[in-house]
Specification:
The structure is a single chain. By secondary structure, the chain is α+β, with helices and mostly antiparallel strands. The protein has one domain: Mth169, Chain: A (2-Layer Sandwich), CATH 3.30.1280. The chain has a three-stranded antiparallel beta sheet, covered by helices on one side. The longest helix is centred in the last third of the chain and has 16 residues.
Length: 82
């Protein structure tokens, strides 16, 4: 069994209005040293799989097909044996 920890973020060339809003909110709360915020998604996917290579291939395919939009987002993931 594996737990995939998937991190999806906008590519650096894509505008991030949500990140800008968060940065503005942090500044209004007194965190003046904040210069930029990029928002993203964090997902956990549990796999009933014993083979690490197969689990990695499955997570990569999940990200490419559904979890991330390859046009505007990039992703990375960690696999943890549970």
């Amino acid at each position: 069994m594996y737990l995939a920890k998937v991190y999806v973020t906008l590519k650096s060339t894509v505008n991030d209005p949500q990140g800008r809003t968060i940065a503005g909110g942090l500044k209004s709360l007194g965190f003046e040293s904040v210069t930029d915020v990029r928002a993203g998604k964090y997902l956990e996917v549990r796999l009933a799989e014993d083979d690490q290579r197969r689990a990695e291939a499955m997570v990569r395919e999940m990200c490419d097909k559904l979890l991330a939009n390859p046009v505007i987002e990039e992703y990375r993931f960690e696999l943890v044996k549970v």
